[in-house]
Design a protein that fits this description.
- Two copies of one chain form a homodimer.
- Chain A is 46% helix and 15% strand.
- By secondary structure, chain A is of the alpha/beta class.
- Chain A folds into three domains: 1-50, 434 Repressor (Amino-terminal Domain), CATH 1.10.260; 62-161 and 294-320, Rossmann fold (3-Layer(aba) Sandwich), CATH 3.40.50.2300; 163-293, Response regulator (Rossmann fold, 3-Layer(aba) Sandwich), CATH 3.40.50.
- In chain A, the strands form three sheets. In chain A, strands 2-1-3-4-5-11 form a six-stranded parallel β-sheet, with helices on both faces. In chain A, strands 7-6-8-9 form a four-stranded parallel β-sheet, with helices on both faces.
- Chain A is elongated and about 85 Å long.
- The first copy, chain A, has helices at 7-14, 18-26, 33-46, 52-59, 75-88, 104-116, 131-139, 163-176, 191-206, 224-237, 249-262, 295-310, 335-343; strands at residues 64-69, 94-99, 121-125, 144-149, 157-161, 182-186, 215-217, 243-246, 271-273, 290-292, 319-321, 325-327.
- The first copy, chain A, is built from 13 helices and twelve strands.
- Chains A and B meet through helix 4, helix 5, strand 2, helix 6 and helix 10 of A and helix 4, helix 5, strand 2, helix 6 and helix 10 of B.
- The structure holds a DNA duplex (16 and 16 nucleotides).
DNA sequence: TTGTAAGCGTTATCAT
DNA sequence: ATGATAACGCTTACAA
């Protein structure tokens, strides 16, 4: 292994001082063109690459963007990640990913690890940080974006949407399509799922059809298999039910499969609405209604907001509402559809 | 923002030198118990946390484990990641994740970024690194694990399975169940997919039923929707076909959905075999046969191998074959099933 | 525009 | 068992 090329080696080769080489690399406009060209050439020729540790130590800053998400397997977050990696491509930043596993304690720990590195920026999931985490964030002295949802006072910046409104919107959609006894299936029950449930409850109360027995939740992670099970649980409680709002599409697909097995006709006898609008929903049989949320865009915007602040530009609005969209498909065509057919 | 607590501050508080505090933190057995206790107490009381940049600069080593995977959205890799994060939990290492987007050039670039940090270990996906990447890896001077597949000479260590054998095994399974005209649907066509295709070709040739027209591939990323499309393409070429081996489960689910729409009876008229055994396959209608590969275990083992080497212990075998398992479900019950019924 | 000097916070090395 | 001193490779602050 050949010896490492240092700043001073480049400087010696060109006949300038180390700081000049450093300047060429970071602030080329401060160096005369003649010197700049010679230095650039030498850097390339010698294959010099800066040592990030030395840089971090000397400048009290790194090129690290710390990202904290609660799960690496959940589709939702991998979509956000894709947006993040997309937007950061070609920029001189390094993504450092932390997996909190939906644990506030792990979030605190990772925040500690991250802040010691003096990151250039931080992205953190949700609004519900612990007190200690908030303290750490306040001391982090770098721009911070909370992603996935909006609401309350931002620590610094936010990009997301209202899960409460989305839950209410989905439930209303089912109501508008003529369903009355609408169940709620929820897995994981993280803060965002809980707010979707709140939205559901509000819509059901507004329609005067709220009934606790229609709500089935579990702290287990959501899977397709779990969707099958939860529908079973719901039906074992009552058969007076004509639709479900699933807190995500995995559950919804599971519910659809289970309906197929039980010969429950969707959407005629039973409406299904999912959440997240995974691509699969559009090609299921029948295609599933879902709530589309722009997760890649969320990742991209979060990075953009960080960069804007890192470069010292002003932010127009620290809170960005990306909204959501109910994508109505056949799975919620409604019991109305049957009446239509009956009268035809 | 209160001033940062440094090693020397702790040392002054206890009345020892900085290096002694450093020793207590890294090699406590070298320090007398009396001093050790006082130092530990002071560290806790003052809230001292080491600066990773200073550490890295002084010791020429970091606690970074660099991971290079081709996609953050692909289920397969998020499963591996989960295993990695699982196994590393509680250990004094930091995961640094790089997303190569299936690009050898991006892989090279990230490898450059990573090796400059003097990582404690590296995990890289697959066997097909570029020449330059191999040079960088050779110079990295840390343990390296290639994951996902095995074959050829390991750069250092390997954990995975033979995709060729798995492709051959899946195809044979279909043949054993009585299917003859078996199609192959492939997306992305990364090296591992290509080797699965090779296995398929081998099995088809061995059975004397190889036909190029039965192979439909695309470089697009695999999705459920794409599975629908690829089946359409295959059927537009020929209707003399009684099964498909899909290079992953997303495609397989899409094929199933498309069969439902076209009223093609699975498994009676058409067998479907997927790959990866996502949990969803078990609850589809009918449940889908797939090839199970233990991806979480792969992540865990990779970390274990790194750690073993980092701690200087010997590795029993640098190449770990995790194998695969054909999980036979109803979707490949075979045309035989119909004969059975017919004769009943 | 370029350079000098003094750190940045830790660990390696060599003493004691 | 503990300490003094010199790196580690770069940037900041100030000077020329």
């Amino acid at each position: 292994m050949k010896k490492k090329v240092k700043l001073i080696d480049v400087a010696d080769a060109v006949g300038v001082s180390a700081i000049t080489v450093s300047r060429v690399l970071r602030k080329p406009e401060l160096v005369s063109e003649a010197v700049r060209l010679r230095v650039t050439e030498a850097v390339a020729r010698l294959g010099y690459v800066p040592d990030p540790a030395a840089r971090a130590l000397a400048s009290a800053r790194t090129d690290v963007l710390g990202i904290l998400i609660p799960s690496v397997t959940n589709n939702v977050f991998s979509n956000v990640l894709r947006g993040i990696y997309d937007r950061v491509e070609g920029l001189p930043f390094n993504i450092q990913l932390g997996n909190t596993r939906y644990s506030l304690l792990e979030e605190e720990r990772l925040l500690g690890v991250f802040s010691r590195q003096r990151p250039a920026g931080l992205i953190i999931t949700g609004l519900d940080q612990s007190h200690r985490s908030k303290t750490l964030l306040a001391q982090a002295d770098c721009p911070i974006v909370q992603i996935m949802e909006i609401g309350g006072d931002p620590i610094d910046m936010m990009v997301g949407f209202s899960h409460r409104d989305a839950g209410r919107g989905a439930t209303r959609h089912l109501q508008e399509r003529g369903y009355r006894r609408i169940g709620f299936l929820g897995a994981r029950m993280d803060p965002r799922t809980q707010r979707r449930l709140e939205g559901y409850e509000q819509a059901m109360k507004e329609a005067g059809s709220f009934d606790e027995r229609l709500i089935v939740t579990t702290h287990r992670a959501s899977t397709v298999t779990l969707g099958c099970e939860l529908l079973g649980e719901l039906l074992s409680r009552t058969h007076e039910i004509d639709a479900v709002f699933c807190n995500n599409d995995d559950l919804a697909i599971g519910v659809l499969f289970e309906c197929q097995r039980r010969r429950i006709s969707v959407p005629d006898d039973f409406g299904i609405c999912g959440f997240n609008d995974l691509e699969m929903t559009a090609v299921a049989n029948p295609p599933l209604t879902s709530v589309r949320t722009n997760r890649e865009e969320m990742g991209r915007r979060a990075i953009e907001m960080l960069i804007t602040r890192i470069t010292g530009e002003p932010i127009d609005d620290p809170v960005v509402d990306l909204g959501f969209e109910i994508v109505a498909r056949q799975s919620t065509a409604g019991p109305i559809a049957r009446e239509g057919r009956a009268s035809a």
